[in-house]
């Protein structure tokens, strides 16, 4: 009987130990599953957090990229505008340089013209001073006439002698439109012309004669402007004719429209 009880007790203990071991195993399995679950949950949460951080970083980077792209586009646009402004300024500078060069050239031309005008003015003033010479400028001139009578000379009229007889006067042949001319060798402003008629004969031969003054030798100088018409100078007398500062190199006395000595 005793042997049976011990056997029953052993069997019960043996069965209890198996249940405990089973429970312990199940508990270990549950703990392991919990630990694994916790690890999986922790790892998943960490991955989700990292994913969210990466997504946020990606979004931020995308936003920064877009901002940088916008800034780049704006800078490119500003660069193009600056380049256009630079090109326009360069073009304006070149135009201004061209205008400056043209103005400088015109200034130099005007300066040259001014200098030439000053030179001409000074020369004109010098010539004017010459023109203002007082006295009988015909005395130094060169005389000529349409013809010579009896070997007389045209210079007899400007030799300065006061004798009015034939031997001291100029004389032509009986020419048609006879003329006498003196070359003053320079241009003068002639205030008056003084003529002395022959005193020993024929004072009427000079009637109607014209005094002409100018710079032309066309038609022997008789086409120059007229200073005066001689109506009559009595024999041996001297008359002065006002010419109001007519300008000319040649003084001509012509008897137009008839043949005369």
From TrEMBL:
Acts as a defensive agent. Recognizes blood group fucosylated oligosaccharides including A, B, H and Lewis B-type antigens. Does not recognize Lewis A antigen and has low affinity for monovalent haptens. It comes from Oncorhynchus mykiss. This is Fucolectin tachylectin-4 pentraxin-1 domain-containing protein. Belongs to the fucolectin family. Residues 44-134 form a coiled coil. The keyword Secreted does not apply. One of its GO terms (biological process) is regulation of cellular defense response. Residues 134-260 form the Fucolectin tachylectin-4 pentraxin-1 domain. One of its GO terms (molecular function) is metal ion binding. InterPro entries: BG_Antigen-Binding_Lectin (IPR051941), FTP1 (IPR006585), Galactose-bd-like_sf (IPR008979). Homotrimer. It comes from the Eukaryota. Pfam families: F5_F8_type_C_2.
């Amino acid at each position: 009987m005793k042997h049976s009880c011990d056997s029953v007790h052993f069997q019960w203990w043996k069965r209890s130990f198996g249940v405990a071991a089973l429970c312990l195993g199940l508990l270990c399995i549950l703990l392991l599953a919990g630990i694994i679950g916790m690890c999986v949950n922790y790892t998943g949460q960490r991955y989700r957090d990292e994913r969210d951080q990466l997504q946020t970083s990606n979004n931020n980077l995308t936003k920064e990229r877009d901002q940088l792209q916008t800034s780049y586009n704006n800078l490119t646009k500003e660069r193009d505008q600056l380049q256009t402004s630079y090109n326009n300024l360069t073009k304006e500078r070149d135009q201004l340089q061209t205008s400056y060069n043209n103005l400088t050239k015109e200034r130099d031309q005007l300066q040259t013209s001014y200098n030439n005008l000053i030179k001409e003015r000074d020369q004109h003033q010098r010539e004017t001073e010459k023109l203002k010479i007082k006295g009988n400028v015909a005395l130094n001139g060169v005389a000529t006439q349409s013809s010579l009578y009896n070997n007389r000379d045209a210079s007899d009229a400007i030799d300065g002698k006061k004798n009015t007889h034939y031997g001291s006067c100029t004389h032509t042949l009986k020419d048609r439109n006879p003329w006498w001319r003196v070359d003053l060798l320079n241009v003068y402003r002639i205030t008056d012309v003084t003529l002395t008629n022959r005193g020993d004969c024929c004072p009427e031969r000079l009637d109607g004669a014209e005094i002409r003054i100018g710079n032309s030798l066309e038609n022997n100088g008789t086409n120059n402007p007229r200073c005066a018409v001689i109506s009559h100078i009595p024999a041996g007398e001297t008359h002065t004719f006002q010419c109001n500062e007519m300008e000319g190199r040649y003084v001509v006395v012509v008897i137009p429209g008839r043949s005369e000595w």
